[in-house]
């Protein structure tokens, strides 16, 4: 412990290599170019998987909600070329998750 002019104490330590890591999933993910699609609600994390052209949700387990909500065929037909500029955000007022693809939007009500 080190004391200085501040009220709290400062603790020095050392870092090291992580001894373990856990994969939540190895089948879905997001790419750096598509990070703007990642958004969260009070209990879930949402993103657009660019490689699989799917919208996913994580609430303890990963779920492809574009398939569960029957909009995967819409994504496949409207966006047969993948959309790199997908934006995602959560609207707290209406409890909705928005995904913006170019000039169209998909909105999921939680």
Provide the descriptors you would attach to this structure in a database record.
single chain; 110 residues; mainly beta; Thrombin, subunit H; 4-stranded antiparallel sheet; 3-stranded antiparallel sheet; 2 helices; 28% strand
Could you describe the 3D structure shown?
This protein is mainly beta. The protein has a single domain, classed as Thrombin, subunit H (Beta Barrel), CATH 2.40.10. The protein is built from two helices and seven strands. The mean pLDDT is 81.
Strand and helix layout:
Layout: E1 39-40, E2 45-49, E3 54-58, E4 62-63, H1 65-68, H2 72-78, E5 87-91, E6 96-101, E7 104-109
Antiparallel strand pairs: 1-2, 2-3, 3-4, 5-6, 6-7
CATH class value? Mainly Beta
Largest sheet: 4 strands, antiparallel
Mean pLDDT metric: 81
Low-confidence runs of at least 5 consecutive residues: none
The secondary-structure class comes to mainly beta
CATH topology: Thrombin, subunit H
Give the amount of beta strand, in percent.
Answer: 25-35%
Span between N and C termini? Answer: 47 Å
Number of strands: 7
Q: What's the architecture, going by CATH?
A: Beta Barrel
* Spatial strand sequence of the major β-sheet: 1-2-3-4
Count helical runs: 2
Task: Please bin the fraction of helical residues.
Answer: 10-25%
The succession of helices and strands, N to C, reads EEEEHHEEE
What's the shape? elongated
Number of domains: 1
The radius of gyration computed from the alpha-carbon positions, rounded to a whole number of angstroms, is 19 Å
Oligomer: single chain
